[in-house]
Design goal:
This protein is about 40% helix and about 20% strand. It contains three helices and four strands; from the N terminus they run αβββαβα. A four-stranded mixed β-sheet has the order 1-2-4-3, with helices on both faces.
Length: about 120
């Protein structure tokens, strides 16, 4: 079910939750972003954002990447059910236009489902 909110239960909040995804992830990447995921025992997907200041220098760019990641995640959440996902950005992600960033994320979500849901 599509909801316009990014509710608390859809987020990775604690360091232990992030650590679990980082331990043995299913990994999808391109030259701008990397998505790490792990199966969870929940009926919904959860998203964690780890956009490093070292990789994306300006707060404006980091916030744009986070905002677009959350938005596209909300649109694809039914397809992603049962996964914990962490989004990591590379330096080149800061130069993407909003349309390019959306297209990259949508492509990565589809690839993630094909690889990690099987």
């Amino acid at each position: 079910m599509f909801s316009g909110r990014f509710a608390r239960h859809q987020r990775l909040l604690r360091p232990a939750e992030f650590k679990q995804v980082f331990e043995r992830p299913c990994k999808i990447s391109d030259k701008h972003l990397t998505l790490l995921c792990r199966q969870n025992d929940l009926p919904h997907a959860r998203l964690g954002l780890a956009i490093a200041k070292k990789q994306v220098k300006t707060a404006v760019a980091r916030n744009r990447i986070k905002r677009m990641s959350r938005e596209t995640f909300r649109e694809q959440q039914t397809m992603l059910a049962g996964l914990d996902i962490v989004v990591l950005a590379r330096t080149s992600a800061a130069q993407l236009t909003p349309q390019e960033l959306r297209r990259v994320l949508e492509n990565l979500w589809l690839r993630l489902v094909k690889k990690c849901k099987s």
